[in-house]
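assembly run, all chains below
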Amino acid sequence: MRPDRSQSFNVPLRNTTNQPTELDSKPHTIEVEKLHKRFGKINAVDGISFKVEKGQIVGFLGPNGAGKSTTMRILTGYNRASSGTAKICGVPVTADPHFIKRRIGYMPENNPLPLELRVREYLKYRAKIKEIPFSQRRRAIDTALERCDLLRAQDRIIGKLSKGFRQRVGIADAILANPEVIIMDEPTIGLDPHQVILIRDLIASLRGRMTVIISSHILPEIEMTCDQIVIINHGKIVGQGSPAELRDTFIDHTTYEVEVHGPAKELEAALASVAPELKVERTSERDADGFATVEIQIKGKHDYREELFQALAENPDLRPRSLRSKMAPLEDVFLAATRRSWETVDEELAAPQPAPQEDEKEPVTQNPEPGTKS
Amino acid sequence: MRHFTTLLRNEIWRLLISPSTYIAGFLFLLVMGFLFQWMLRLYTSDPQDETPSVLFFRMFFIPVFFMVPLLTMRSVAEERRSGTIETLLTTPVTITEIVLAKFSASYLYYCSLWLVTASFHIIFFTYAQADTIIDPYPLIGGYAYIFLSGTLFLSLGIFASSLTKSQLVAGILGFTLVFGFIVIGSNIEDLSVLAAEKAHWLRQLADHTDALQHMGDFSTGIIDTRAIVLYLSASLTFLFLSILAIEYRDGTS
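ok done. output:
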C-alpha cells in the first residue's frame, strides 16, 4: 500500500525493539516492522511491515524472487534480518529463538523430508524434537495423521509416496505440535487440482485456531483461503488487505456483463441515456438465439445495475437476458499492484541521475493494462 | 542437550535402515580380512620383529583413509542438499546437539566396525596359535588408539561435511584432512627445511603429531597422555568449528 511504503522509505533504519508496542501487540500474533534483508548488494526484503491477528490466514503473493521465502525464513528465525524486527506472540524472533521455535510450525519450500523413514516414524521423531510431552505425543501424531488424511499411509516409506502424500506429511509435521503460528512456503506447488482442494480445505480448517501464513503464486487459491493478502514485489509490500479491499485499492473501474439481444447501436444509445461514461468494453459473438455477451465498463465505483436494467428493458429493440456486475479477478489486482511497484522502482532508478526517457518508460509499456486483460 | 538422545537415536536408526551402511561395513571387513590374511602370509615366509597384532594396527590408516570420508561425508552435506536442515533448525534443537548427534552416531558405527575386526585376532589365536597364550595388551592398546584417534578423524570428516552442500566435495575434503593429518603429521620431521636450527619448535610439534608413532606406542603398551590430550582437544576443536560452519552457512545466512 502506498502510505505503508512511503513510511518505510522515509524513516531511517533503526532498532525498534524499544517501541511502545506492549499495548498494541496483544491481539497480533505476528508483527513485522521495517524488515530488511540484504544478500550482498541485493535487497531481498526491503522494508516490509505488516501485522497478523490471531487465527487469521495470510497469503503472501508475489512473483518469483520477490522476497516471500526470505520473509518467512526470517519469521521462523532460520535467517536473520539485516535490520527491523519480526515478532511472534510479542517476542522478537532473535531475542528468544527457543521460545519462537516452539510456537511455529514451518514447512519450507519444496517440503524436504527424510525419504528413508516411514511416515509415522518421521512424525514421532519430529514430535520428540518439538518437545511434545510423552503423554500427548501419541495423540498429537494421530490427530495430525487424521487431519491430513494420512492414516492409511502411516506405515509407508516417505520416499515411495506420491507428491501429494509427501506434501501432506509436511503439513502434518507443521501442525503436529499444535503451534500458534504455521508458516508454509508454497504448500500446494506441483499438486493436482484434487489435492490442491484437499490442502486448501485443510488450511481453511486451521482458521481461528492457528495463525497461518502461506505463500503462493497461484492467485485463486490464495483468494479462496486467505483472510488477508500481502502482495510483495521486489522485497516491498505493494498491496495489503482482504481480497475485497485490494480490489477497491487497485481496480478503479466497475464492469457489468449483460446478455442482450438487439443492435449494438441501440445498446450504446441506451447506455448513454443512463450515464454518458458507460462504455462497451467488449462484445462477444452472437449465439444461436441471437444473444451477445457485452461487457460494459465505467471508471470509478458506481452502482448502475438497476438503471441499466431498466434502460435495457424499456428499449423495445433490446431484449436483455441477464445482467451481473463482474468482480475483477485477483489476477488483475496482482498485475496492477506489481506493475505499480515496477513503476516506482523505475522512478527511483531514474530520480538520482537524469536517465534517458526510454529507460524510464520501457518496463511500463511492457506490461499490459490490467483493465484490458481479464 | 535434551534433544541429543532423540537426534542420536534417529541418526542411528537411519544408519540401521540404510543398505549403504551394511555395504560399507561389508567392504570394510573384506578389506581388513585381506589385510590380515596378507599379514599372516608375511609371517609364514619371514620371521618378523613384531607380533601380528602390532603389525595389524600399523596398517590402521588404510581403512581410515576411505572409511572416515565415506562415513561422514553424508552427515551435514546431505541434510543441507535436501533441505531437511531447514526443518531441523526451525525446531527447538540446537546446532551443537545436531553436530554431536551426527558425530556420535558415526563414531559408534566406526567403533563397532573396528570391534568386529577383533574377531580376526580371536580366530587367529584359537586356531593358528592354540598353543601360545593370548596376549591381550597390544590388542587393548591398539583398539584404545583406534577409538581415540577415531574421535579426531570423524570430527575432521564432520567438519568437512559441514562446510559444503555436496557430498563429493565433503568426501574429498574429509579424505584430504585425514590424509594430511596422518601422512604429513608422520613425515613432517623428515623435511630438510626442518633440519635448520631455527625450526626447532616445529620439529618438536611434529614429534607430537605423528599418528604412526602414537599407534606404535599404544600397541606396545605405552599409553601417552599427550596423545590423548591431542586427539580429544583437536576433535573438540573441529566439532566446534563444524558448529560455527553450520551456524554461518545456515543459521544467519
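The domain at 252-326 of chain A is CATH 3.30.70.260 (Alpha-Beta Plaits).

Residues 128 and 285 of chain A are 63 Å apart (CA to CA).

not gonna interpret more than that til we talk
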